[in-house]
Design goal:
single chain, 378 residues, 13 helices, Rossmann fold
């Protein structure tokens, strides 16, 4: 356990330090309140000094927004290539997270946030962090994410392909982009599966919230095994399966990638960009060296029944960003002794695809999301 130290009213203080992004303990922490000027807070944060907020909660949010505006004064530097633009964007985002992450709040022994006009964050923190372990300092930016995740967990997200809601948990990738869900909902099932739905089995690898496992069950697959390497995802998927009354059809298993046995259909929606995530939420987007993608391809043939297929749901955004080529993807498919049966494409419908101010707008505008139907090569 890491410990953060500061002095308040001439008295040395300490608390447990927690960061979901594994940010190091600040080397220096000072107390800040409603009298703290945004320019001073921004300068100290850029220098690496953390500010433990002891004023009004809403004023803390305003201060963080003011610090963000100061970060935005310098326009992003364009890259000479798509890959350089991506790495510059990631570097800028990382710097922004480091600076804004220096504004801290203190959670009491029961996760109470004792600031004026502060919301009750106890349940949200319990869901995200588990049982309290004493006074804990966290960044305000992270806490706001925890609060937002709690609201998603309560209200859920509508999934049109299911006609109902999925309830994401903190740190689990939420199905806010429904085009990939629709691909799984409408792609033709493998012939062997269509002819024997009553005995069909499917694997959903990297299930996250369990949304694709639920879609497969709604399509008539009798037994779906949903796996994930994340304990948070396994808990989330289990809860959603129970909410959807699909416990007799969907088995949540893990942590791991492939379960034991073989299936008629193996579905995998790996992170789309081969880059290093900076926190748990980004693990649904970034996959260093395409580890999950290559793991799926390498193990697919050994886990398919005769006549079965593997469905790889993948965006080509990495190709437009110069992070992976189409040839590299197809070479990996061939190296795994697989063949492409078909490829079904769709265009993204999320708002960022139309945001001309996005530094990666050119790549996002050209992006296509595909469902690759794969089978063992003869």
């Amino acid at each position: 356990m890491s410990t953060i130290h500061w002095t308040e009213n001439s008295t040395p203080q300490s608390a447990r330090w927690h960061s979901e992004n594994a940010a190091p303990v600040p080397r220096l922490t000072v107390v800040a309140d409603d009298r703290t000027r945004a320019d001073d807070a921004y300068r100290q944060a850029c220098e690496g000094t953390a500010l433990l907020w002891r004023g009004d909660f809403h004023n803390a949010r305003q201060l963080m927004r003011a610090m963000g505006r100061r970060l935005d004064r310098k326009p992003p530097r364009p890259g000479t290539s798509p890959s350089e633009s991506f790495h510059l964007h990631r570097r800028r985002s990382s710097h922004r997270a480091r600076v804004l992450g220096k504004l801290l709040v203190l959670l009491d022994d029961d996760y109470t946030l004792t600031l004026r006009r502060a919301p009750d964050v106890r349940q949200a923190c319990l869901e995200a962090y588990g049982p309290p372990q004493g006074r804990t300092a966290v960044s305000l930016r992270e806490l706001l994410g925890v609060i937002g995740a709690h609201q998603w967990r309560l209200k859920g997200l509508v999934v049109p392909a299911l006609g109902t809601r999925i309830h994401p948990h903190y740190g689990v990738f939420a199905p806010i982009r429904d085009e990939y869900v629709d691909l799984v909902a409408h792609a033709p099932l493998p012939p062997a599966t269509r002819h024997s739905l009553a005995t069909s089995t499917a694997f959903d690898l990297g299930t996250g919230t369990g949304v694709l496992a639920a879609v497969l069950a709604h399509r008539g697959i009798q037994h779906v095994v949903a796996t994930d390497i994340s304990p948070r995802a396994l808990t989330c998927a289990t809860e959603n399966v129970r909410r959807l009354a699909l416990t007799d059809r969907i088995e949540v298993s893990g942590p791991g990638l492939f379960p034991q046995g073989r299936a008629d259909l193996v579905v995998c929606n790996p992170p789309w960009l081969p880059a290093r995530p900076t926190g748990p939420v980004e693990q649904g987007v970034y996959d260093p060296d395409g580890t999950m993608l290559h793991g799926f391809l390498a193990g697919l043939s050994a886990h398919l029944r005769p006549g079965g297929e593997g469905w790889l749901i993948l965006s080509d955004l990495a190709e437009h960003l110069g992070l992976r080529t189409r040839r590299q993807l197809l070479d990996a498919v061939r190296a795994a002794r697989l063949r492409v049966v078909d490829k079904i494409d769709t265009k993204p419908r999320h708002p960022r695809a139309k945001d001309a101010a996005d530094p990666l707008h050119t790549a996002r505008r050209a992006e296509t999301t595909s469902l690759w139907r794969l089978a063992p090569a003869p």
